[in-house]
Design a protein that fits this description.
CATH class of the largest domain: Alpha Beta
Number of domains: 2
Number of strands: 18
Shape: elongated
Strand content: 15-25%
Radius of gyration: 27 Å
Largest sheet: 8 strands, mixed
Structural class: alpha+beta
Number of helices: 14
CATH topology of the largest domain: BirA Bifunctional Protein, domain 2
């Protein structure tokens, strides 16, 4: 979330964002409350600064009085009372920040990109591009039936082991899963992205910086019994990579920092449709390779396009028809400045399904973790953060099984994966 100083300096831009999102009636009062509480907090800060200055003055006066053999009792008494006064004001500042400022700041969204289209919800997201020829013939078997017929997956065993929303991969499909991971990692590292294997649990305050409270409630598994800042299972490698540079000041010349992270991902998927159905499309646990960038503000637009191009290149090399959709105002997450989804064609449903999500979060995430940059001239600022899926294997497996399935149930392997898998076709 933004800090109070940023909100104060960008109040008019925030008002415009709220207006474009049709949320001004709901959140303008919150914005005004932030500005009011910030003014009070700054007044108290001015008071503490004055008290500290007075304490230093009194210390000098006491020393001078003693040198001159003068009575310093009154000065010492006044100086002795100041620490308690500072403590009282600082406690009021902390209470104001924790109980009034932070809860309201957390409700305010990121500043929205000028090109974000207006729409009330996801049904009004705007298609901006298509690639490939969608397969109009419905495959003989959907991916669940095909996997069970070929012995590639066991959804009944996984349900008994862990519950609905999990899976066991076997044989060629498990090997294809690994081939996808190796392919995506090698592609991204060849483009200069630093490979990261992050921990699968992070502190809650990292997740608080990455998303809003509703996103946390719907998706994150919290590990019980780990204190006030509990460990949580990550929903994507984006989360721990975001925390890599917490409380750091990066040199501007080192930016952008481009990362590609592989991790298992865990999501509750509360409120999601179809989580109780068999299959790989929507699951509680999956493998994902994630792109993540820290950059200077002037670099983020070009890097947004770069992350998009990376993902499009992957889908094209996997020979999967897809479309690009720009997220509208009503579907744009609180922490995002702009976002596009890449959706792959699914012949079994004769429609597109989301497989990659691109976001520019500008300063919104990094500011929460006190990640900064400094230029050669000493100017300091907050870096922008961007992320995009490189490849999530479970949904890509579904797309491959559906789009490359032959009449006999065998599945053609795209050329870019054949080196990793050692086969041109599986299920023969």
């Amino acid at each position: 979330m933004f800090n109070a100083k940023y909100v104060r300096e960008h109040a008019e831009e925030l008002k415009e964002t709220l207006k474009r999102q049709k949320r001004d009636k709901e959140l303008l009062p919150v914005l005004y409350e932030v500005l009011e509480h910030d003014e009070t907090w700054r007044t108290l800060k001015h008071e503490t600064d004055g008290l500290r200055k007075r304490r230093n003055e009194l210390s000098q006066q006491v020393n001078e009085a003693k040198k001159q053999g003068k009575d310093a009792i009154a000065l010492i008494k006044e100086a002795g009372a100041i620490p308690a006064r500072i403590k009282d004001v600082e406690e009021r500042m902390a209470k104001l920040e924790d109980e009034y400022l932070k809860p309201r700041l957390a409700k305010l969204p990121n500043l929205m990109h000028k090109d974000v289209p207006f729409g009330k919800d996801e049904t009004e997201n705007r298609e901006v591009k298509r690639w490939g020829e969608p397969k109009k013939d419905v495959p003989k078997l959907n991916h669940v039936a095909l996997c069970e017929a070929k012995g590639w997956a066991d959804f009944d065993v996984s349900a008994r082991l862990s519950g609905n929303g999990f899976y066991v991969l076997k044989g060629d499909l498990a090997l294809l899963n690994q081939a996808l991971l190796h392919y995506a990692i090698e592609k991204m590292t060849s483009k200069g992205y630093t490979y990261i294997e992050p921990p699968l649990m992070v502190r809650k305050h990292i997740l608080d910086a990455a998303m809003d409270s509703e996103g946390f409630r719907q998706s994150i598994y919290r590990v019980v019994g780990t204190g006030e800042d509990p460990l949580c299972l990550i929903g994507t490698a984006e989360h721990p990579i975001l925390g890599l540079h917490e409380d750091e000041t990066l040199k501007a010349g080192e930016l952008p920092k481009k990362y590609v992270g592989y991790s298992m991902c865990f999501r509750q998927e509360i409120g999601s449709h179809g989580i109780n159905e068999k299959g790989l499309w929507r699951t509680h646990q999956f493998n994902k390779v994630e792109q993540f960038v820290f950059c200077l503000p002037e670099q983020s637009e070009a890097l947004y396009d770069e992350l998009m191009a990376n993902s499009e290149e992957i889908l094209q090399e996997l020979e999967l028809p897809y479309r690009v959709v720009e997220i509208c105002t009503g579907d744009l997450a609180l922490w995002k400045h702009r976002s596009h989804d890449l959706e792959v064609w699914r012949p079994t449903v004769q429609g597109y399904g989301e497989v990659m999500s691109l976001s520019n979060c500008t300063e919104y995430q990094a500011m929460s973790l006190s990640t900064r940059y400094v230029r050669k001239d000493g100017e300091r600022g907050t870096p922008h953060t961007l992320n995009n899926t490189a490849l999530a294997t479970s949904r890509i497996l579904v797309a491959l099984l559906e789009n490359h399935q032959a009449e006999d149930g065998s599945v053609r392997i795209p050329q870019v994966l054949q080196t990793y898998l050692g086969k041109k076709r599986i299920g023969i």
